[in-house]
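Lipoprotein: structure, please.
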Amino acid sequence: MSSAQSTPSRTIRSSRRLIAVAALIPVIGVLGACGYGSEKKDDSKKAAPAANANKKKLSASEVKIGYFGNTTHATPIVGLQEGLFAKELGGTSVKTQVFNAGPAEIEALNAGAIDIGWIGPSPSINGYVKSKGQSLKIISGSASGGVSLVVNPKKIKGLDDLKGKRIATPQLGNTQDVALLNYLAEKGLKVDAQTGKGDVKVIRQDNKEIPTSFQRGDLDGAWVPEPTASKLVAAGGKVALDEKTLWKDGKFVITNVIVSQKFLKEHPDVVEAVLRGSVKTNAWITANPDKAKKDINSALETLSGKALPDEVLDPAFKNVQITNDPLASTLQQEADHGIKAGLLDKVDLKGIYDLTLLNKVLKAEGQPEVADAGLGAK
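Here you go.
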């Protein structure tokens, strides 16, 4: 894994239906029915260390952090496992929730169930636009890449053989769902964004269920993040397309960090501490890739009950690039994909980024500052 780098009158079409779907999708982990996400239990003390009683609390006694059980979310997984966030937060404790996909995490952020979250770009855009710019800010990057279209080579011979096939994504409106719908549209294949019906049948299914459906023959392929993509390859699938090949320089935001605007305003010191933990974790992952892989596997084992074999973990880890840079120039393209897919009307993303605290942290660490591509505070 290497280091990288006017509000519309209508926003998300059928937004109520999108939220309803998000609420019904089970989140990853053994406590999938609990609230918006699953709180880690067997290794909760290791993953989210208790506040250090010898250190002064920051302005909040607790910070609630959300993320996914994916290798594309290596930063929060490793940072929590290694206690790097706890070290920066001092006496402020951490509570975690783990999600299957972004729409449910946005719902949790809006409800105050989490304060800060690692999440994909499409749900970030949706959450910002639907709230008319009031709900969240993107405050950092986290990862690039790590997404592939994996197919059953017996049923799909190539990228011109998708018509009539069944392709899965993790959730309606999540980042991979938007990417697939946009790609199909570019190939002239028509799909109803809401129902998934059309020239290709798009099936929305939980990441942890997709490999089983694939092996059963219920799916012909899936556009998914790591480690699900590598699981499908290990089950006999073939990578038909690595999404990074569709982007300039092979870089695109797959995971960024968002914060509730209310929490940012009331507790900037806590947000800065989390960002210090994030930046230091990314440096630690780069310096300690083997240990980082073990941390990720330990967390995934707790969530799913089963560790990943090396033939899955190694490529899943290698395919993701950790970065502090939010790759802001790719965010507008992600929004354009949502528009083309039929999930968004034209949007104004001006103000979605606030990289002030991140750049403060980067400067203190002797690292170059990052840009917001003109999408910073209005």
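Notes: Residues 15-144+251-364 form a domain with the D-Maltodextrin-Binding Protein; domain 2 fold (CATH 3.40.190.10).
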